Amino acid sequence: MSALSQLQTMTTIVADTGDLSAIARLKPVDATTNPSLITKALTHPDKQAMLADSLNRYSSYGINMIDRVIDDLTIQVGCDILKLINGRVSTEVDARLSYDTEATIAKAHEFMDAYERAGVDKDRILIKIAATWQGIKAAEQLEKEGIHCNLTLIFGQHQAIACAEAGVTLISPFVGRILDWQKREENRQIIPVDEDMGVQSVKRTYQYYKQHNYHTQVMGASFRSVDQILALAGCDLLTISPELLDELSALDTVVNQVLSADMASETMSKVSLTVDQFNAEYEKDSITQTLLPKGIEGFIAAREELAKALKLLVK
Question: pTM for the full model?
Answer without folding.
Answer: 0.94
